[in-house]
Amino acid sequence: MQGKKTVIVTRRLPEPVETRMMELFDTRLNLDDHPMSRAELTEAMQHADALVPTVTDPIDAALLATAGPRLKLIASFGAGVDHIDLAAAQERGITVTNTPGVLTEDTADMTMALILAVARKLPEGERLVRSGKWTGWAPTTMLGHRIWGKRLGIIGMGRIGSALARRARGFGLAVHYHNRRRVAPELERELEATYWESLDQMLAHMDIISVNCPHTPATYHLLSARRLKLLRKHVYIVNVSRGEIVDEAALTRMLINGELGGAALDVFEHAPAVNPKLLRLPNVVLLPHMGSATIEGRIDMGEKVIINVKAFVDGHRPPDRVFERML
Ligand code: 8YV
Fold this sequence. Notes:
327 residues, alpha/beta, globular, binds 2-keto-D-gluconic acid
């Protein structure tokens, strides 16, 4: 009888997920949770039957070229797969899976929280109280902007974009969106969303922009320096997707020059490095990639990973397979 398959998990996962993985597979954990070095990832690629990486592990073509003959599955913990070279994996006959669906509501919540945080100056107010310098209420200080009645332009009307649209309506925002494809008429009606085929056109007419599309070669710097210039001066930009979608240097320049209302960023182009100039700007909200960070969400993501690995080792097709052509 064949022994248990070796599954190497690159980061700590919630305890119930790790426990179940230990029961089912010969699971190797990263007990001190350090982001794995290139050498450690190479080692893992050689000894695993299935690798469970996260966004902090760049699985590029050169690393995939070092994979041992046993490695047949990369079951990524997360929805985004931009850290994995899908074409190279496919070429080597390695199946890639992700964890879609289970982090939708949490990430949409975080997007809404960031819209409110930047428009209503939540971190600025918090910093003032904590500084001990708050001298009391005044009619003209800490004034943000009303979001009710404003136009929200969602870039990417997938699961998270749609979940954001549902919330946004509750906050009185007019929902607009740009997507590669117009969504089904029923969904558009339900969301009361206005479709813009031209991203440039949409950008020129919005008050708030939210980035909710995946990072792919086609969306790299989608919000380029040129496109950012199309935005009106009061616009807030919110990004909970991937930093690479926005030209961060151009965005920073515009914020410094007062050409934008503000930005709320959960992700950064060179994460975990953050442009130091951003740190000095008061109208910028900065979070350390927390979009899906709920214990419930992370357990659900782990559950998806387990189902994908278990299906695969049992000889079935894992439910959340990702192919390059799907992007
Ligand atoms: C995850 C994310 O926490 O799922 C994604 O794409 O960006 C995050 O919410 C992270 O990617 C885990 O690998």
